[in-house]
Amino acid sequence: MASSIALPSISLSKSAFADSDSFRSSVCLGFRNDIRRVSRLNFEKSRVFMSVAVGSEAAVVDDALFQDYKPSTAFLFPGQGAQTVGMGLEAQKVPAAAELYKRANDILGFDLLDTCINGPKEKLDSTVLSQPAIYVTSLAAVEVLRARDGGQQIIDSVDVTCGLSLGEYTALAFAGAFSFEDGLKLVKLRGEAMQDAADAAQSAMVSIIGLDSAKVQALCDAANEDVDEANKVQIANFLCTGNYAVSGGLKGIEAVEAKAKSFKARMTVRLAVAGAFHTGFMEPAVSRLEGALASTVISKPRIPVISNVDAEPHADPETIKKILARQVTSPVQWETTVKTLLSRGLTKSYELGPGKVIAGIVKRMDKGAAIENIGA
C-alpha cells in the first residue's frame, strides 16, 4: 500500500499524483526579458484546449486556466546550489518528513539522508545527487511546516507556487501535478542527463555581480566576438538586478571574466557546477527528459505553478511536459516571475528547503516583502 503525505486538499500519494543558489553556486539558471525561445516550443498564448488522458478518462484542460491568477500567499522552492551538508536533520523530528527520505531510498537505490546529513560536500554538490537531495528536502520542509502550530492553515492558504530551475519540479509536486515518487524519478533522470550533457563538452558558468541586464548582455556580446561558435556565451539566469549568471563554452566564459572589469562589474564568481546549464549545451538532455515525461502521469495542478521558461502558469499537462523538457536549455525567468508575483499583490511567501537565497532575492527586489524560511 502506498504511503502518502497529505497536502492541502490532495495527497502526495503514489496513486493520487505524484538549479537559490549562492554567488558560489547559483545553478538556478536562465532568463531573458524577451521570450522568443517560448515561440520555439509552440506554446499557444490563446486559450487553447487540449485533450489528455488521465487514468481511464479523457480530461479537457484549458492551458490558460490560471492566466488571471491573483496571488496572496506563495510557496517558493530552491534550485541546485542550495544544498548544504546537514540538511535533512531537522526533518527527522517530524515522522511524515522523515518518511520521505525512506521512500526516496527505494527509488534512488542509496541512502539519500546519509549523504544529506554527512556529505561529504563534494558528493552532495554533484548534479546527480544535489538535485534529488534538494527536491526531497524541500518537500520535507512542507511537512515540517505542517507539524507546527498553524502550519496546516498556512499550507491551505497557498494559492501560487514556483521554484528556481530544479525547484519547479518541487512546486509541481506540491501542486499535485505528479506524485512524490514520479517527481523524484524525473529529478533523478534530470540530474543524470544534465551531468552527461555537461561531460560531453567543455563549458562553464559564471555569476556577474554589480551590473544591470543590459550591461551583462553587452559583456556577453563582447566576449562572443573573441570566440568561435562552440564557445559562445549567453545570459542564463536572471536572479535579480546586479546578479546574473552567464553560461557557455569554457573559452567564452574565460573571455567574460577577462572583460568584466572593463564593463565595471563589481566581481565575477565562477560557479561550482558541471557545465553550461540552461543553454544549448544541455540539448542532449532534452530527448531523455521527453521520453521520461511522456511516460509520467501529469495532472492539472490544483494551484498555479509559474514556469521558469515563460514566467506564466500552465494548466494543461501536455504543455507542462513540453515546458519541462525544454527548461534545461531555456533561460530561467526568475526575476520576471518574482516581479510579477509582487505586482499582482502577493502579500506573503515562504521559502521551503535548504538555503535562504530566494528570500534574499525577494528582499532585494522589495525590501518590504514578507518572506519566511522553512528549513528541514
Automatic annotation (TrEMBL):
The lineage of its organism: Eukaryota, Viridiplantae, Streptophyta, Embryophyta, Tracheophyta. This is EMBRYO DEFECTIVE 3147. It comes from Perilla frutescens var. hirtella. Residues 76-375 form the Malonyl-CoA:ACP transacylase (MAT) domain. GO terms for molecular function: [acyl-carrier-protein] S-malonyltransferase activity.
